[in-house]
Design brief:
The protein has helices spanning 3-6, 56-61, 86-97, 136-141, 145-152; strands at residues 23-24, 34-36, 41-45, 67-73, 76-83, 111-113, 127-129. It is α+β, with helices and mostly antiparallel strands.
Length: 153
């Protein structure tokens, strides 16, 4: 499945340049094309024209932006960033990936800051694993089952 087969009315000329290591995960029952980054972000790309969006009024009012970034949490996706500026999306993802200091998979798909949503602009100290509640460093050294599954995904 690709965005072209799942969203045949989506004008390819309006799709920003997608990094080569992102995987197209678009599905026709969703609202717009989406791509998964190697570190587990899902990036939704709405139609360029608000009139073509599933939420045209929200797009026109600015309450819903064209590009939305979520953490992939299986059945529950958590929005962590939204913008109408593609360069800002790429910058956000690049900054978030800097949290991976040891060369392993970035733990960002399972960490939360004090159990209440990650501020990805801060250093990773003080993050807790959403799955087991342990400190990030403890869970990274001796991963829980959810972290292991996330790294293998």
């Amino acid at each position: 499945m690709t965005y072209r087969t799942e969203f045949p009315d989506f004008d390819p000329a309006t799709l920003p340049e997608i990094p080569a290591d992102w995987r197209d995960r678009s599905w026709h029952n969703e609202t717009c094309p989406s791509f998964k980054t190697p570190r587990g972000f899902i990036v939704w790309i709405d139609y360029a024209e608000p009139a073509d969006s599933e939420w045209p009024e929200l797009r026109r009012s600015g309450d819903y932006l064209r590009f939305n970034v979520h953490l992939d949490g299986g059945q529950c996706l958590e929005e962590v960033f939204a913008s109408d500026d593609w360069a800002a999306v790429l910058a956000f993802i690049a900054a978030a990936e800097l949290l991976d200091n040891d060369g392993d998979e970035c733990p960002i798909t399972v960490w939360s800051r004090d159990g209440d949503g990650a501020d990805l602009r801060e250093a990773s100290d003080g993050f807790q694993c959403r799955a087991c509640g342990r400190d990030e460093h403890d869970c990274s050294a001796d991963p829980c089952d959810d972290v292991i599954a996330d790294r293998e995904a």
